[in-house]
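Justification of resources, computational component.

The compute hours requested in this renewal are based largely on the per-chain cost of generating structure records like the one below. Each record pairs the submitted sequence with a full structure-token output. That output is archived, and it is also reused by downstream analysis tasks.
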Amino acid sequence: MPVILVEYAIGRFTKNSPLLSYRKFMGNYFVWLGGWIVVTAFFISAYYSVIIGWCIYYFFISIAFKELPTTERAGMEIFDQFSLQPQWPVTCQIAAIVLTGAFLFGGVKWIERANLVLVPLLLLILIFTFGWSLTRPYSEVGIKFLFTPTWESFTQPSLWIAAASQNAFDTGAGLSVLLTYATYMGRSASITKYSLFIPMMNNLVSLYASITIFSTVFSTLIGEDGAMTRSAILQIMQKSGPGSTGLTFTWIPVLFSNFGTLGRVLCALFFLCLIFAGLSSLLANIQVYVLAAKEIGVPHRIAVTSSLLACFAVGLPSAIKLEVLENQDNTWGYALIVSGLILAILVVAYNPLRFLRVIINGFGMSDWTVPVIWVAIITVIVPGICVFLIVWWIYDYIRDTEHWYEVTWTSATSTLIEWLVVLTAIVIINLVVLRVKRDLYVKTKRFGADPHDPETYTKEPVVVGDKIWVAEDSNCSVRTL
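The structure output for this chain reads:
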């Protein structure tokens, strides 16, 4: 919640991308901090388009195949045949990019209308399958296993950082998607309520989904082999695709296969809903760097086209090779922890009490008042957790890995090298732009409010159609959405 609230507050206040927002709050020499957040969103969207492509393929097989897989082996065979033949993942990734481009150019209202039906439908399907999974034989074994902690694992930093990054990805915290959305919000937007309800609803849905998956997996595997142990089942689950992404694609069809024809319909609807939900997320991610490009004067169509092409090009290796996807998932998923730290740094640099008073409570209207305890959370607890997790993770890896310096797809070393390369690049770009003394934000820096100029706090932008009008003295600045 604290990081989500910071994103909402910054976007609503500045009406700018992370790049220009950091310039407004911290000055020209710290634009690279916003650049890190934008770059993280870019790399995540690149491999995320590949996973949406998987959903497209499974929607196809739900309709085209004679029958759904009924066993774990059959489910894994379909997943392996698809993922290990590059032409299929690449084709499906292209389809995902094309659909995203169609919505970006044709208007996001179409996908909004579709999601008004499909997202509630997805929840209904999840609730139905959740209830049904509880009735299956041995489902209680899976549920008991899910809620029985392995205390030794709590001493593994990789568990904590993976959980934190996954939750950040699910809720959008640190991804700057919410910051970008908030640039179109007025002062009456209830960002405090959003910041509370989004993680609550996300975690509730995740809980239902996890119970459904564990019930299905244990019921199916024990039904096939009554002598199978819990550790053996866990090993199978851990091998179900990179980062366990294959769990959904392996086990959901197996679950629906028990319903016959109805199961095929439910399976197709399930993946159709996932496609549109995924496209909505991908659209939001791409808008992050589209907005950043438009702020430096890149025309909308060029910004969108180049963003889509870059997303495809960078995501292509992940479509071709699963190990690359796993590397990107680890590297940029974990980078969300760094992004959370960077957002906290902005608050600390600006003055936490002033941020709370001016940017959140003072600038908002008809919203809950955030208590002062939030200051301690965002200035001490959030940065402390972020730094502790990263340092602990690095230390543990070096201590337990003899050849820790070797670069592999999933090593901490490769993640740190990728971070260092990107960080160096964006810092150099920041310094070069300052060196040539070129102001890239001549027009767009006037949008929104200036956190260091109290006179701008009352100049509330008015949204008219697809444009934002910003009163400035006797003139008006305009930005096309």
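The chain has one domain: 1-435. Confidence is low (pLDDT under 50) at residues 461-481.
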